[in-house]
Amino acid sequence: MTDTRQESLAALLGGRGGAVDASLPPAAFVLGWLLGGRSVEAGALAAVLCGVVVGVVRVVRGARPGALLVSVAVVVAAAYVALRTGRPEDFFLLQILLNAASALAWAASIVVRWPLLGVVVGLVTGQRFRWRRDPDLLRAYRLASWPWVGQYVLRVLVFGALWLAGQVVLLGVMRVALTWPLQVACVAVSWWVLRRSLPGDHPGLRHPRVPGGD
């Protein structure tokens, strides 16, 4: 097995920095909410400002502006929901819905034999969709996609329970705890499943074994 497989899986995270950055606006919301006398407006302002600052810093460091605009838009949308309802816990509602949608999408991709792990890694490695003609890789990607379903389901269960209980501070804490640490664990498990699922003589992710050749 080659190191390129591990590198490709690590690339799925977009780097640990991206996952860490994603947890900063929710933490800023909770901090602003507490320091502002439990004001949703103060929390929303803190989250949006934090999201903008993080976005600008990452663009300066060479990140793609398009992806950062989307992340800032998600923060703004979350703040808008909380402002509209007046409930601070609703800042996390959009994140719960996005994780639920992600769990369904990943599970559906496995069922229809287009596992999203294979789609993403295929694009990262430049193999595009040739992996689908390799029965071993297709099977391995399907099995290794289940940990990704699991991480989204776990977030929905934890965030959903805390949202229902109105635990704003705990939502902020768990939003950080279940962001990059959980993603790192998910990639590690997926990497392990891939290694266990592929035959020992398989050339690796960058070299799909296509019956009959190209």
Question: Could you walk me through the main structural features you see in this protein, from its secondary elements to its overall organization?
Answer:
Helices cover about 75% and strands about 0% of the residues. With about 210 residues, it is mostly helical. The protein has one domain. Helix 1 packs antiparallel against helix 9 (about 180-195) and helix 7 packs antiparallel against helix 9. The chain starts with a helix and ends in a 17-residue tail after the last helix. Residues about 1-10 have low confidence and may be disordered. It comes from Saccharothrix syringae (Nocardiopsis syringae). Pfam families: DUF3159. Keywords: Membrane, Transmembrane, Transmembrane helix. InterPro entries: UCP010219.
β-strand amount: under 5%
Radius of gyration, in angstroms, nearest whole number = 19 Å
Mean pLDDT: 86
CA-based shape: elongated
Order of helices and strands: HHHHHHHHH
Features:
single chain, 214 residues, mainly alpha, 74% helix, disordered N terminus
Indicate the topology.
Blueprint: H1 3-11, H2 16-35, H3 40-60, H4 65-85, H5 93-111, H6 116-125, H7 135-165, H8 168-177, H9 180-197
Helix pairs in contact: 1-9, 2-3, 2-8, 3-4, 5-7, 7-8, 7-9
